Amino acid sequence: MATKEEAGKLEWTISVDNGTTERLVPKSGLSERIFLWLNGLVMKVIVERIAKFMKKTWRIGADDPAKVVHCLKVGLALSLVSIFYYMRPLYDGVGGNAMWAIMTVVVVFESNVGATFSKCVNRVVATILAGSLGIFVHWVAIQSGKAEIFVIGCSVFLFAFAATYSRFVPSFKARFDYGAIIFILTFSLVSVGGYRVDKLVDMAQQRISTIAIGTSICIIITVFFCPIWAGSQLHRLVQRNFSKLADSLDGCVEEYFKKKDVSENEDEETNMKLQGFKCVLNSKGTEESMANLARWEPAHGSFNFRHPWQQYVKIGAAMRRCAYCLENLSSCMNYETEVPDQVKKHFGEACVKLSSASSKILRELADMMNNTRISSKMDFLVFDMNSAVQELQETLKTVPVKTNKPEQEVPNNKEDRTMSMSLHEVLPVATLVSLLIENAARIQTTVDAVDELANLADFKQDSKKKMGDNNARQPPQSS
Question: How does it sit in the membrane (predicted)?
Answer without folding.
Answer: Multi-pass membrane protein
